[in-house]
Design brief:
Blueprint (H helix, E strand, L loop, with lengths): L3 E4 L3 E5 L13 E5 L1 H11 L4 E8 L2 H12 L3 E7 L6 E5 L8 E5 L15 H5 L3 E5 L1 H4 L2 H16 L3 E5 L9 H11 L5 E5 H6 L7 H12 L3 E5 L5 E5 L2 E5 L12 H15 L3 H15 L11 H10 L7
Parallel strand pairs: 1-4, 1-8, 2-6, 4-5, 8-9, 9-10, 10-11
Antiparallel strand pairs: 2-3, 6-7, 11-12, 12-13
Family: Belongs to the carbohydrate kinase PfkB family.
Keywords: Kinase, Transferase
Organism: Haloterrigena turkmenica (strain ATCC 51198 / DSM 5511 / JCM 9101 / NCIMB 13204 / VKM B-1734 / 4k) (Halococcus turkmenicus)
Amino acid sequence: MSDIVTFGETMLRLSPPQNERLEDVDEFEVRAAGAESNVAIAASRLGATASWISKVPETPLGKRVVGELRQHGIDTDVVWSHRGRQGTYYLERAGKPRGTNVIYDRENTAVSTAKAREFDIDRIQNARVFFTTGITPALSSTLRETTANMLKAARQGGTTTTFDFNYRNKLWSPDEARETLTQLFPGIDVLVIAARDARTVLGIEGDPRQLAHRLGSQYDFTTVVVTRGAEGAIGWHDSVVHEQAAYETDTVSSIGTGDAFTGAFIARRLHGDDVPTALEYAAATAAIKRTIPGDVALVSKEEVDAVVKSGGTDLSR
């Protein structure tokens, strides 16, 4: 039995070296990348047992994804498919004014046809936490139904459901996202959402503390975490609002920072921490992740402990 089971698509990320342009590149850095598997890895690194479930093409690229996740110590329970393809995305990094560009290539992927009945639902119902994100139902109408069914099954089994809103404007419009994701809210215990998404997609105004309180009260969540980038995060639990500042960090890569935060928060709550302590560890894990290339938080519990205990000072001194 796993502490946490996550469900969603993991892609292959292809990145030109340094800040080269895609149109001129002759080699790529390749890594597995997906919000749900990133969360599983971060939770695992902080001591939780984690599983990732998905539908994957039985191709060399699909096997590449599964193999990399297993190397990170994640239990993978996949439905191998002979139809559909492996999703990819291209990350072209650059500073201002060009900015970093993400190009998705995830049409007609194997996971877009996944249905709840294809998976071992007992695995979800026997876990302590089931986690998925708003990215998954954005990928297909089938996955919208599947996500709802899995959340329902988790709740029926007494599993805590945790959901990262994770709005992506390259996948769907704010109106589409709001209509679909609010229908999932009754099946969610813990919501993680960026302050900008609460405003842009849900149309909820106010400062982050007000956003957290309004979301918790309006939709009857057990816990709401509102992230706000460099300004830290807000946690709402039992009608009490807790504030956590971000730790100072020298950023190497910001990709996957939110997933590292969420994975650590879940792991520490599973460990028995209260919300303020879990937020503290989540912020420390996110800060360390920003110093690591790629999407995955290759952190250790010991170094996260050290950041928390030091208050975020430079550990190399």
